[in-house]
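Researcher: Can you fold this with zinc ion in place?
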Amino acid sequence: GPALLFVKTSPGKEEGRRFYACSACRDRKDCNFFQWEDEKVSERRLAAREEYNRNHQPSFTHEQNVDRYKNFMRLPLSKRRFCQECQQLLLPAEWEKHLDHQFLCDISTAQLQSPSQLLCPLENKKTNAQYLFADRSCQFLLNLLVDLGFRRVLSVGTPRLHEMIQSKASQEKDFRVRSLLLDIDFRYSQFYTEDEFCHYNMFNHYFFGGEAARETCRKFLYEENGERVIMITDPPFGGLVEALASSFKKLMAMWKETEKEGHDNKEMPMFWIFPYFFESRILDFFPSFSMMDYQVDYDNHALYKHGKTGRRQSPVRIFTNLTPSMIVLPEEEGYRFCTICQRYVSSGNQHCQICNSCTSKDGRRWKHCVLCKKCVKPSWFHCNNCNCCTLQKHSCEKTYVGCFVCGKAGHKRSTCPSLSCT
Ligand code: SAH
Ligand code: ZN
Ligand code: ZN
Ligand code: ZN
Ligand code: ZN
């Protein structure tokens, strides 16, 4: 799909130089596409690019994969193999080609219903960053949206939620929630039909399946028989917020266009799951959103599982345009309702009388700094040099470029105080 237009700035120069690069891969090692905005590209280079793209297509189309799946389901258990090296379901005729690969045998229907367990998570930090919901968090999200009365879930980069919905729907007669998965991980096309999965890039709103896939999505968003839709997304955290926001606005517009009357001033309901230190960035693009205190947990995210004290500490939250008081957080997991803020908060999150709000972002009790006129992390202190609250250990020298994560000057992304768990 289309590349994104970036700008390279260098200190001292006012205007940066603009260039195109891959929207999905933020690491040049994964995709080396680069082109200055004003660059003339020779015929030869264009041809070479096309050739490269042709050679890097998946070995089967989605349509072929759907057929293969049907055939696979007809096989007896003893003939159902999954090649771990190629991350592919194998039909008996193909075994020979994969003999020296590691493979799994006796793939059960239950395994086919939870592809996120079968496929190995793509943990490449900058490109895919597949961090799967812990069962508890996935269950919580599903219960929440069912309780809120939603019948359709547009799952954007949430394969585990999608598969939980799909398998529940196939097992329980009166469970009537449906889900459509949009994800860049094409391996999922082996397990879902074109009505259940669209190969999609959420950084440039690109449907790889063209107009047909776009139409599938549009149809799904059309709220027939009063079946209300919610979009749930959990993008890679390294992702550019502006690119994501622009795509999500296009999905919202798609929802809005599906019905002529009815949703005049309404927005498509949405959960955007993202770390709390992106709060101000997200609110810049979606002023109607608010951040919930619920800590979303992951199975394979070593970093976020345990803080120094050994307790679970995830910085990942739910941002939503639904009324905060409707998002009921479980008391047994330590959340309570603040009647002044009219929302559920972590039990450690105290209501600050001066800020007149429950100000903690990480679940611990924050303290109010009169000089900064706001609440800050308990481990921070007010530095008179920097004229703000920060970590005790910091260097007061200022750098010109703002931090990539929080946008503040004085530190780089790697040392951003909002990333630290202490
Ligand atoms: N917690 C979720 C998974 C989130 S990980 C769950 O358990 O369901 C991020 C997801 O976004 C992965 O599924 C990954 O394949 C997908 N993804 C990464 N980059 C993407 C892109 N550019 N467009 C669409 N999906 C992308
Ligand atoms: Zn409060
Ligand atoms: Zn305060
Ligand atoms: Zn201060
Ligand atoms: Zn300082």
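Model: Folded with zinc ion in place. Residues 369, 371-372, 376, 382, 388-389 surround zinc ion (ligand 4) (CB under 6 Å).
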